[in-house]
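Table 4 source record.
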Amino acid sequence: MLPAVATAEHVASRIILYSWALVAASMALWPVAHMTVFYAIAASVLAVVFLRAAYGLRSRVRRAVPARPMLLFHWSITYLSLLFVCVGADALLHNR
């Protein structure tokens, strides 16, 4: 709903903030839930790709080219799905 009342630049900046918050929450799971190094590496790789997509969206907005925000939305769903797969795989590795 924010794009209806704010500029595209403001929305893109908020997306960056929320993306960092999502990455921080996913990385906090490593020490809090006693995950293995597998999770830390997998979550880090996924975080880099996700943040790169978010910064790419902001870059496109700043250059006034078509932003294509649905690509970031689809990647966010993929990011969370792969992150949950990593949590499950980490649990299997941890129990061995």
